[in-house]
Design a protein that fits this description.
By secondary structure, the chain is an alpha+beta fold. It contains four helices and six strands; from the N terminus they run H-E-E-E-H-E-E-H-H-E. Helices cover 38% and strands 28% of the residues.
């Protein structure tokens, strides 16, 4: 399977789990000593009220990269990186208008 097919398949899976008004649950696992990098995980409440982990799909869709422990790597500072993860995923899936208007996420530290 080509990279483009993997990306399209990952985006289709993400759209299955994430609706425009869905709330993404973001867990922050660690912050680097410099504060420039965070390790995160993203979840959404799926069927039977169970959390569905989205890290692999987000990585395959090319939105963020994963570390060796399958955590999302978020680089940068000066803004809410948990918001950035939620916004970036919705922007990739639904475009600018949906991303701007439907920013709901729950942070867990």
């Amino acid at each position: 399977m080509t990279n483009k097919n993997l990306k399209n398949e990952a985006i289709a899976k993400l759209k299955k789990y994430i609706l425009p008004d869905s709330e993404i649950v973001v867990v922050m696992h660690s912050v680097s000593q410099s504060g420039m990098q965070r390790k995160l995980s993203a979840y959404v409440v799926g069927e039977n009220k169970r959390l569905v982990r989205l890290n692999g799909y987000i990585s395959q869709a090319g939105i963020f990269k994963l570390d060796k422990n399958q955590k999302i790597i978020s680089n940068g500072c000066g803004m809410d990186m948990l918001f950035d993860l939620s916004y970036s995923v919705k922007y990739e899936l639904f475009g600018l208008e949906v991303a701007r208007e439907n920013q709901q996420y729950q942070a867990i530290f």
